[in-house]
Write a sequence for this structure.
């Protein structure tokens, strides 16, 4: 059965009307408010974005007082100084091996990237790595040692209470997610990294960051998942057959699958922050559900969901703390068209769509704003993306048995990295690559993208299309229409 957290929608590395009053009410830290908090991910994979100082003005004008970054760019951190905006920064995956090996490295990193800006820039958390478990460079073993060294370096500066350490995980870290009550982490991750990480989070009073995308679940399983269920709209809901709790939206079910997985390991004290979630306003023809109306519904209804202050069915007393993905559409992101179109704003700072300001307005229609010809021109490009794995709030075994999803290469990915991923799939990954050898049935067309797509799909199908098995560090993504290269048919199962 496909994992409920079929997300992984990796990333590696993700329009509001006058949000001021609304988000000032929302954006209080969870420890000081019964309601949850709304923050925003500020990604910068684009060549047309406003300057960081302009971005800070936009954040303040819209009432955002929490922002999450994907690095520690000095220009951005300087712009955020004395803004009143709390900041989560990130240590990229490529630094984890150095951070894990030598605490003097993290001492220097903290000095350069944190102390040079804090406290004028209100850094509240450090995300050590991002979706590390699906990193093809195998950085998993470095994660917890790196987190501990960063924490120890903060302790030296007496900042370990002020600045928390966590690491965003993708939903593909789950072995089981449906029913929600059966949520469990992948067996191979539990002892080496999950339990040590949760122990660290528990001891330091931190939280687990989770990237959750109901969009990917719906896009891959639209015949079994209700769109209303994915968009927080009125629907019959789903009753968990294990604990008999009722879920009326997919995001709650995804979060509680992670909560159940933590409970199974006896870490009920660790809370969750949704470090990424969103819905694209534009997608390719096979990206079912992508569009402005649905994006406005998802984010607008999510804001209402967070505002009401209630937790999930499994943890009703824990408010939801969420970082929306993302602030801007990013024109240099690779991957399917959706990857470029998660923004609430165009780079011109024009809103992509309006969502409600106040609780009274949440019952009104959510209106897309017409795009200008320049802003809407987003040609489909293959490349890096959030991990596209199906997540479901219902039983999707029928979809799985039908074999209605395939894995293909992101053609826009660098040739070197694509070849590396292909070598892994055909080697250690155990994909059936005989058909793409010279003279074999799928050798033609003799292109790297075609060969990689065949190998990635073979691996994906052999792994029963499990969460995270079509990613390869962003080199691949799931499609719902059967791919074809030349006369080569792609298998749907083994």
């Amino acid at each position: 059965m496909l994992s409920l957290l079929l997300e992984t929608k990796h990333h590696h590395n993700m329009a509001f009307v006058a949000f001021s009053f609304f988000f000032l009410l929302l954006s209080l830290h969870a420890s000081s408010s019964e309601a949850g908090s709304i923050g925003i991910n500020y990604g910068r994979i684009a060549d047309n974005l406003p300057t960081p100082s302009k971005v800070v003005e936009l954040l303040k004008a819209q009432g955002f007082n929490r922002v999450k970054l994907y690095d520690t760019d000095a220009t951005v951190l300087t712009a955020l100084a004395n803004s009143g905006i709390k900041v989560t920064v990130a240590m990229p995956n490529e630094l984890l091996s150095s951070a894990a090996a030598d605490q003097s490295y993290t001492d220097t990193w903290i000095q350069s990237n944190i102390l040079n800006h804090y406290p004028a820039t209100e850094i509240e958390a450090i995300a050590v790595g991002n979706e590390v478990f699906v990193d093809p460079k195998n950085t998993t073993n470095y994660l917890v040692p790196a987190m501990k060294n960063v924490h120890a370096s903060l302790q030296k500066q007496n900042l370990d209470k002020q600045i928390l350490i966590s690491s965003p995980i993708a939903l593909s870290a789950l072995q089981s997610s449906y029913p929600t009550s059966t949520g469990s982490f992948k067996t191979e991750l539990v002892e080496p990294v999950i339990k040590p990480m949760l122990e660290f989070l528990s001891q330091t009073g931190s939280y687990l960051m989770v990237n959750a995308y109901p969009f990917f679940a719906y896009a891959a399983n639209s015949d079994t998942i209700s769109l209303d269920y994915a968009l927080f709209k009125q629907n019959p809901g789903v009753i968990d057959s294990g604990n008999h709790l009722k879920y009326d939206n997919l995001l709650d079910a995804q979060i509680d699958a992670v909560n159940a997985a933590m409970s199974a390991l006896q870490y009920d004290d660790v809370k969750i922050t949704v470090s990424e979630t969103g819905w694209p306003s534009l997608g390719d023809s096979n990206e079912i559900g992508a569009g402005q109306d649905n994006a406005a519904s998802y984010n607008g209804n999510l804001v209402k969901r967070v505002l009401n202050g209630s937790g999930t069915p499994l943890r009703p007393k824990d408010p939801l703390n969420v970082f929306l993905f993302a602030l801007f559409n990013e024109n240099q992101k690779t991957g399917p068209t959706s990857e470029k179109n998660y923004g609430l704003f165009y780079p011109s700072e024009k809103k992509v769509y309006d969502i409600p300001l106040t609780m009274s307005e949440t019952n009104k229609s959510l209106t897309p704003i017409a795009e200008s010809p320049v802003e809407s021109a987003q040609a489909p490009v293959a490349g890096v993306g959030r991990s596209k794995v199906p997540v479901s709030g219902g039983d999707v075994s029928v979809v799985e048995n039908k074999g209605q999803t395939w894995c293909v290469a992101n053609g826009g990915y660098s040739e070197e990295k694509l070849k590396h991923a292909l070598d892994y799939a055909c080697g250690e990954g155990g994909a059936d690559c005989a058909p793409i050898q010279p003279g074999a049935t799928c050798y033609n067309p003799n292109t790297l993208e075609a060969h990689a797509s065949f190998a990635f799909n073979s691996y994906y199908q052999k792994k029963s299309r499990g969460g995270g098995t079509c990613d390869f560090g962003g080199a691949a993504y799931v499609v719902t229409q059967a791919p074809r290269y030349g006369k080569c048919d792609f298998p749907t199962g083994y």
